[in-house]
Amino acid sequence: MKRTSSLSVVLALVVGCHENQRAEGPMERAGRHVDNAAEKTGSALEKAAEKTGEATKKAAHATGEAFEKAGQKLKGHDASAPANDSGSAKKSE
Questions:
Q1: What is the pLDDT of residues 53-76, one digit of tens each?
Q2: Considering the entire predicted model, what is its pTM?
Q3: Cα torsion through 89, 90, 91, 93, rounded to 10
Q4: Per-residue pLDDT for 31 more than 70?
Q5: Closest alpha carbon to 72 in 62, 86, 61, 84
Q6: What are the sequence ranges of the domains in the chain?
Q7: Per-residue pLDDT, 84
Q8: Residues near 83 by Cβ (< 8 Å), separated by ≥ 6?
Q9: Residue 14 in contact with residue 20, Cβ under 8 Å?
């Protein structure tokens, strides 16, 4: 009888422990959280790269316009005024 009781307790423990075999353990949960965090980080980096690319294009365009205006001023032309072709370089020839 004692042996049967002990065997019953052991069997109950074994069945109870293996009843939820599909449950994830702490390492599996941690891994899932790491995967989710990595995915979110990747998405955020892609969005940041897109925004940085757009900002870079705008800055390059603005820089190009600024260089054009500076070049016009160096040539003696006011960027806002119409160009004057009767410059002093032609008079000295």
A1: 999 999 999 999 999 999 999 988
A2: 0.44
A3: 90
A4: yes
A5: 84
A6: 28-75
A7: 53
A8: 77
A9: no
What spatial distance separates the first Cα and last Cα of the chain, rounded to whole Å? 127
Please name the amino acid found at residue 92.
S
Position 50, amino acid: E
Whose CA is closest to 33, among 41, 22, 23, 21? 41
Tell me the residue type at 86.
S
Per-residue three-class SS string for the chain:
CHHHHHHHHHHHHHHHHHCCCCCCCHHHHHHHHHHHHHHHHHHHHHHHHHHHHHHHHHHHHHHHHHHHHHHHHHCCCCCCCCCCCCCHHHHCC
